[in-house]
Amino acid sequence: MYGCMEISRAACIGGLILGLNINWSYNDYRMMHAAKNSLTKTLVLSIFLVLLLVTSCNTGTAADNGTVSFAFTVTADMRNYTDDNKNYFRGACETIALKEPGAFMISPGDIDPPSYAYSTIQKYIGADYPWYPVVGNHEAETAEYMAWLRTFNKGGNTLPHITNTGPPASIETTYSFDYKNAHFIILNEYFDGVSDTGTDGDVTDSLYSWLSGDLSQFSSLPDTEKPLIFVFGHEPAYPQADEDTGRMRHEYDSLNEHEANRDRFWKLLSDYGVKAYICGHTHNYSIYLKDSVYQIDAGHARGTADIGSPSTFLIFYVMQDKSVICKTFRLNSGTGNYELKETIELK
Description:
- By secondary structure, the protein is of the alpha/beta class.
- It has helices at about 5-20, 25-35, 35-55, 90-100, 115-125, 135-140, 145-150, 205-215, 260-270; strands spanning about 60-65, 65-75, 105, 130-135, 160-165, 175-180, 180-185, 230, 275-280, 285-290, 295-300, 310-320, 325-330, 335-345.
């Protein structure tokens, strides 16, 4: 397979054929004429390769199924394995850097210590690469981690592109932001209206009210002007088994522990046309469609630290026509490499 580095080589061949180098020596001239017939046969192929490679290397323009507006990545539940070790979260970051870092990363909870996770992201993906962390139950139960997260988004608008800060007592850890043709909502599901660590995982009245207000800003827009909407929280509304191993975790103690609030929350997402709710918590990768909303559990990105299901990261491609393509990469324990498991269009 030709790579982007081959463009210059193909271009040079094309240049020779077209006679663009006017500084040839006499011997060069004789060699050109001797090879004229074979080189001429290569002309069409060479020019075609140049055009094809230039197009395919134009990141952010061409994709499998249309024209890309932007991409973003998702990693979750790398807790306790966020330090500088390639067998753990670092390995996922290194692969993301090679595959497609996109415009930013969102991590739906259990990212502790968050300072270590962010340091690994900066070192192996990019010093200025934006990261949007989500509060998980392990952050909520640890004062040091919550203090770091509050400072990381000090004032509720330190992170880039934020358009709506969270409710009082959760200003830094609940918010929304816009990026191109999409709207992203980050929920702290441990906010109870008084404290940002007050519940065991729930969409309480206060959080529901804030979310409803954020979503309602788009209700008067015509469909052609409404953005794609993605919502992120730590706990699944409908826990699922891992797609590869069948492992089940947190089957009864996720958002479904508060069933009425869970149902109200999901109806709100459906009513406002949310494309996907992206979560973690179970360490199991799954995609589940209910009432036109995708629940995507991003699994875990702990590398070899959790062998109950393969380590996972996701790359989302948001298309200009507002379709969404999700590519799922999982760690192959035999090769030690992250490999593409599946490509799904969220319709």
